[in-house]
Each structure stands twice: as structure tokens, then as C-alpha cells.
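Table 4 source record.
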Amino acid sequence: MGSVDGLSSRVVDDAPVGLFALDADGAVLLWNAEAERLSGWSAADVLGRNGFVDDRQPVDTAGARHMLDELTAGRRFSAPLPAAVPSGRTLYVHAAPGGPGGAPVVGVLQDVGDALVGPDAFSLLDALWQNAPVGLAYFDSELRYRRVNGAVLTIDGGTSDQRIGRTLEELHGETGHRIADLLREVLRSGRPQLDVALTGRLWGGSGPLQSWLFNIYPVRGRNGSVIGAGLVVSDVTESERNRAELAELARGRERALRRYQSLVDATTAAVWIRLADGSAEEDAPELRAITGQSPEEYLGWGFLDAMHPEDRAAVRQAWLHAVEHALAEPGSHAVFEHVYRLRTASGTYRWFRKRAVPVLLEGGLSEWVGTENDIDDEVRARRRMEILAGATLAVNQALDPETELAALAEAVVPEFADMCRVYLLDDDHLHANRVTGRRSVTRVAAGLPHVPGDEPRFVFGAGHPVARSVVTTEPVLDPGPPSADSWPGTDAMLEWCVAVRMNSRLVAPVFSGGHVVAALVFVSCGDRAAYTADDLALVKELAARVSAAVEHGRRFQQTREVSVALQDSMLTAPPTAAEIGIGGIELDARYLPAAAELEVGGDWYDAFRLPFGDLALAVGDVAGHDLAAAATMGQLRSMLRALAYDSDGDPSDVLRRLDRVSTRLAVTRFTTLVHGRVLARPGPGRPTRVFRWSNAGHPRPVLVAPDGTARFVEGVVDVVLGVEPDRLRHDQEVELPPGSTLLLYTDGLLERRDDPDDRAGQDLLDLAGQAAGMPVAEFCDHVVQGSKADTGDDVVVLALRAL
């Protein structure tokens, strides 16, 4: 019997939850390996010690005593562990009461972070009890069988079905009567009967002569009253042990039984046993009650057929991998866990968590003990939050109402809906409870047929869910399946809904400016679970977020229109050759905004003829990429024009005056600017073209020779505008040979996020040199399109070609 004792010990020690047992005074009788891992206390440290009175144990004495009082009173206890454990974990304790006469308290320890698997912990222990190497049986107050494990059937023969609901006397005659008398005494006194030896014949006297050793204990309800009796039986027929050996055997068997005493009550999880290779040889009635499978359909690998087709392959692969790992590493105690969808007896699918632990014998892996726990509500709640977050992100990335609604449809199909359709309403959309408007977008999950109703306009009568939602301004849950007698839509749509097995749909209104402007329709079909009140709450929140995004989008569109108008008024096309009035010059420019949707920023260019005949050029950069930057840019551009036009002074003088005026008027705090003029300097033969300029903290100009040689034009770079308005500034000149190109630009053409080798400047020179022979318009396009800049800043290019 020593090997069986060893098996009992290993079964408990290898359990995937922390197990403990206390005697009636609180001394620790059992502390398994998982309890050691979770708490940080070794078995050697705690066995035999009493944490309720021993000051050496780091346990809150008052809290621990409360737990023991509850258990002693016959009540279960579930609460945080009243201790500061060395592991630093926050633990939860689930404990079941013992009974009079020194019956121990037994319980389970869990990490609070794994709180969702509380029912699984008891279920796994329940399964291990089913596999215990001793005969275990429970009887109700009328002494009818309520539960037996496999060892009872092995010892005494027969089946569970023959026993459940019947009395010992009905089944076993005189021997049954003798056993029942022992049970009655336990029911009467509330005290266990220990180490009782009995010999007799079962099954109405027709069974073989057997000898047994019984230990019987009371089973108590929540109020402490005795509601039944539990029996542990060992077959000692063939044993030659003396009475002392039998007593020791009984004590070992009772210890094993008491470890599982907390599992008297049935749990919510379905328990099963599988062979070492992962297949099912034993029936699992609890699991079959969920799936509706027959025993023949379940056994072997048939249990896989109840899994969702999309999950089946992944579960099988993970399960076989776990089996392979357990066979390859017999010492492994890893718990297998997988989340998947399981078909219920009603035909719908729900999310379940499969958990299993290998049972190891001296020869290696013996079998698997596992549970299936329904976690559908938890999974769907988590997925609803993920869908809400994803859809909100998608909607907020768009910047116009119709694109936002299309992004929503893309985000929810197929994660939340098999079909999503958006209806944009007319401004005057209500006509005697009828709703009119146009369809905006429809998204359908892959594999579903085309949705009818492509015509651009719609009219919904008062009974249609869209009309009900729009009129009441509240979301609507429309349960399915569709019925021809009550269908409010078209025949074509009814046929589609029947074909795809629509089981429910949701409608939610979208608001802007306090009015309903759109309706969102979500459809669930086929195996997808029908929508619930929780899903209705989700779409209400989703519609509220979409409404906020649509309102923002409409305001953005208004801002965009203002921005475009502002840009058009300020960034006019460069003057033509006739307007320049200086022969031998071509000019072109490009503007690329950082925020393409706004189409305006703080960068600008300007070119205009001065009264004394020179051509004024300017390229500037106001910090920022919004309407404020654009407004500042407009003010500076106008002020520069006025000051340059009204003065025959050098560019440095114009910039100094601009800096002084704009700073004192608080127009700008930080602006870079290159301003200069192109003039014709007389000389022998043809006049020479010269560019004279001043630089306020701006990138240096580039000069490209006719042969493609490009260089940065050296010169003094003074401080930016808005910092030291009274500081003197400098001028410099560069000759513009025939065929050369002068390039002025903003830093958005040059800057990179990552340029460890400082290649940006040389790359710009190479790019400009490649375009030396191109017409000036193509030159501008080439440097803008070929730039490797990646900071997303505004880009302005102003190119002047000397002919």
C-alpha cells in the first residue's frame, strides 16, 4: 500500500493550486509545493506551527482568528490572506470547514491576479478527488447515495447509476444495513466513526465475501447543521496486516480524504479526465451537459467537434503540444490553459477556458485532469472595451465626418459586427415619423453575400429600427431571427438576413450640433452570439464618441475652409517675367504644408518688384503649424512688403526695421527669414545679375551652376526675428551667372529625424545639382519630391533662374 500512499501524496503536492490543511486549533497539517511557491514559506517552516497564536509567524492574529472562527462555525471562508508573505504576492484564501472531533480545515491559496480561476481551483481538486486511490462516497440525510468516486466501483463493483439516489439497504441487504447503522450514528451525533472494520457480502448478499476498513465523517451545511455523511473505504480482504497496520492505513486514507473534504459542493466548472495522449476514454457528463454531445460523440477525439471551427485547429495543436511536452519531460508540472469558443447544447457558441494538469506516476505521465469554465461574459466584456478603444482611435484619425463614419465601419467589422451600415440623414429628415437620407458606407465580413440596397436614397417607415432610433434619439436593440410577418424592411433585405442567419441588430444615432445627423446599424449573423443589453450600452458609448468626432470634423472642415482661403490670399503665384520687369530672369515656387489637411502653416515665400526696379525675394518660417502661425505669417509678409517697398535701403535695414516693429507690436517671438533683392549691376557688355541679401537665422541659400555644381552660399547668419530687435544686421552679395539657379527654402526641405552622418546638406546639394538643366518649374518639383526630409515640417521652395 506504500505506493498508493505515495500516489496520494504526489497528487496533492503536484496540484496546480496551493493546498493547506489546519487542525481544529489552527496548526498546519498540510502545505503543498504550490503553497510554498505562492507564499514563500517552506513546508518545513510552517508544518506543525500555529499561525493563530505563534508570534514567530508573520500573520495578522486578529484576521487569522476571524477566519478560523468562521470555519469552526461551519461556514466557508473566502478573503485575502491575513499575512505579509515573503513572496510579496497578494494571496486569496478559499477554505472549507471541518467538523467536530478534530476534522481539519482544508483550503486553497491563489494569487489575487489569478482571481478569475477560483472556481477552476476547486474543480481541479474535485477531479483529483474523483481519481483518489481510496473509495469515497457521500450520502444525504436519508442515507441515499449522492456521489461516489471510481475507487468505490473498483472495490465493490457495479456502476454509479446503480447507486445514485438509492439507499445501502436497497442495494446491499443485511451488509448494507450494518454500514447504514454506522452512518446513522454519525448523522445523529455529528461525530466521525474512525477505523471501523467490517466483513460481509454486498449486492443483496450475492457479492463475494469482502473485508473493509471504514472511516465516516459528518457533512455540514453553511449553518453548521449535519446534512449528510461522507465515507472512505479501503478493501483489506487480501491483506494480512495486523490491526495496528490497518489503523495506520486508515489514518493515511482519512488524511487523503480530508484533503478533498472542501469539494463536497458541486462547482460551476465541468470536470474531465483524459488519457496520457490527450484523447478521452472516460465519459464527462458535466461537459456533455454543456455541449449536448452523446457519449459516443464525445469519446476519443470527438470532444474537439464541439469547438468552434475557427478555434478547433489551434486548440488541437496546443493540446497536442502540451501532451508532447509532458511526455518528453515527465517531471514537468506545467498547467495547460487555452481560451476558445465552445458550442453549447442550444447551438450557440460561448467562450470557455480549458485548464488541465498532468497526473504523474513513477512510470511517467498517467493521465490529464482538467476543467472547462464558462468565461463568455468576461471575454465579451474585454472585447467590447477593445472594440470601443479601436473604433475611437480609427474615428479620431479621420478629419471629415464621412471619412470618420467609414473608419468606424472598418473598425467594427468583423470584430464586433458581421455587417455595419451608416445612414446619413437629410437636414429635414423627419416626415410623419418617416426618416429620409442617403447611405454613406456599408462594410460586410468576408464570406457574406452582397448586401442589397445600393440605391443612394432611403426612406424608413415608423416601424423600422433606424426610424425608431432617430425619432427617440436612443439606441435600439432589434432581436432576431427575422420574421416575414413583422419585417419592417424590403423583401430583398429580408432574404439577405435569412440567408446569413441574422440573429440580432443594433441601431445607434449620431449627433452633431444637438441634432441627429446619422444612424449606425450593426448586424450579428450565424454563429456569432446575439447582441445583448451590454452590447447596446457599448454602441451607445461608441455613438457618443463618434458624435464628438463628427462635431470635431465639422469644425475642422470650417477651419480648413478658412485656412485654404487664407493660404490662397497670401501665397500667390510668383510674378511672371513680364511682371518682374527685369529681363533674363525666371521664377517659380512650391509650398507643401506639414498638416496637409489644414493646407496652411507658418512658412511662406514672396517675390515682388520694388519701385526702383529691383526684384525683392523673401522666404520665411514662423514657428507653428496652425492658424495662429498662418496669421502671424500673413502679418509679417505684409509688413515686409510695406517696409521694403517704402525703402531704398539694404535688406539688412529692412529686416532690422521689421524686427523692431513686429517685436514691439508682439506679432512674433521666433521667425527665421531670408530677404534680399535681385539687381542688375552694369558692366562691360551684358549687365551682371547680383543677389544681395540679409539672413535672420534662416538656412543658407543654394547656388547651382549651369554644369550642376551646387554649393551653399556663405555669409553671415544673424539672429532670428523677435529676439534682439535693435541688433545690427549684415548684408552679403553673390553673382548669378547666366544659367545658374538660386534656391531659397525653409528647413522642412532639409531636416531629418535621424542623420548620424550629417548627410542632409550634401544630399540637398546633390539633389539640386541633378536638376541644373531642368526648366525652373521642373527644378522646383524635383527638389521637393526628391527630398529625404522626414520631420513632417512645412516646405517652401523659391527658385530663380538667371538666363
